[in-house]
Amino acid sequence: MRKSALVAFIAAALVATAPQVQAAEAAPSAGTWLVSQFTQGDRLISFPGGPGDPGLTADGVYGLAAAGVGQSTSAKAMAWLAANLPDFIGTGEESFTGPIAKIALAAQTQGLDPRQFGGVDLIKRLTELQDADGRFRDKGDPEWDGSNAFTQSLAIIVLRRAALPVDKPVAFQVSAQCPDGGFPIVFGEETCKSDVDATTMVLQALKNPVALSWLARQQQPDGGFPAAVGPSNANTTGLAVGALLAGGQVESADKAVAYLKTLQVGCSGPEAQRGAIAYDSTGFEAGKAVRATAQAMLGLARMSLVDVSAASASAGVPAIECTTTPAPATSVPAPAGPAEAPVDPPLAATGPDQAVPLTLFGSFAVVVGAVLLLVSRRRKVGA
After folding, report:
1. What is the CA radius of gyration of the chain?
2. What domains can you pick out in the chain, each with its CATH number?
3. Strands 232-233 vs 225-226: parallel, antiparallel or unpaired
4. Residue 355, burial from CB neighbour count under 10 angstroms (0-12, 13-18, 19+)
5. Minimum mean pLDDT among 22-31, 162-171, 233-242, 325-334: which range?
6. How many CB atoms lie within 10 A of CB 285?
């Protein structure tokens, strides 16, 4: 590029208004909000005032790793999981597939050894739950058996990442496929009913072109994916992106990511909610936003549970800065902030107007700035 053209290009960039946030920027911004929701800095809760939720905390670890931020928080979360491991995975004769697989996957995401986590060999505990036919079942009271297609897929993913054979569990999973091509969430029911959440998880665990075609047909006009009933939601869509990309369905994945970005609270929303992902298009709801944000971050980062890793994650999270004032052409770029808190471009105002008071969050709220914005505007998130 000639010098004169380069100068003109830089000048134009300086006088332009702030760029729209791309998917890779939306995910770290979501991480900024999610980090603020960790109670005592090391656990996520399912509802205000409730106890720490190990499964949701693991979801948060995956999401932050996918977004490449919040590693210091994730490390604390892993320490909390390790310190309370027996309470989560079962004691005595009890052993639960879902918690074991989720925490083992969180350890793998963090580069930790799941064979030596919290004094337990999680891989051994997991393989002990595999039946002769390849199905993973909870051990203990049969009435409390929570194993299903979701936990089966998680177990397969963990074993794949541990470079262990998965032929039998994959064969069992495939045997449960419904006639229409999707997968049920519950095994062994008289009528096989395909489930979107189950199918997104299965497709992250193994390749199945027929199931992929079924999943693609479930995509809604808004780009999102629904659960068993209801409209599109962030949780299901966030998981669907990884399944679509693994199957080469890039265009469908792009539409799903665009849908997720419409759910992100932007600069027109309350400061303490900015960056959060609402469960659906009805807007921010405190009781649903934590899980929705954690699972949507995988989709925003275009990451599957097979590939997610915290290897390159930063210790902190980016500051969410909202401004509509264009920089003067003669301005000099400010020096970069500390490595723990890099500053992203302004967060685009997205989703419906957020007017829900944040009375339930109390000390969990993120204080982004002390000065109220005098001017804000809504911008669509960039494709």
Report:
1. 22
2. 19-333+341-364 (1.50.10.20)
3. antiparallel
4. exposed
5. 325-334
6. 13
Write out pLDDT tens, residues 176-192. Answer: 999 999 999 999 999 99
Closest CA to 182 of 139, 111, 234, 240: 240
For the record, the structure tokens of 273 come out as 């909610």
Q: How is residue 269 written in tokens?
A: 């929303």
Report the C-alpha gap between 157 and 276 in whole angstroms.
28
Choose among 383, 257, 234, 305: nearest CA to 65: 305
Count of CB atoms situated within 10 Å of the CB of 305: 23
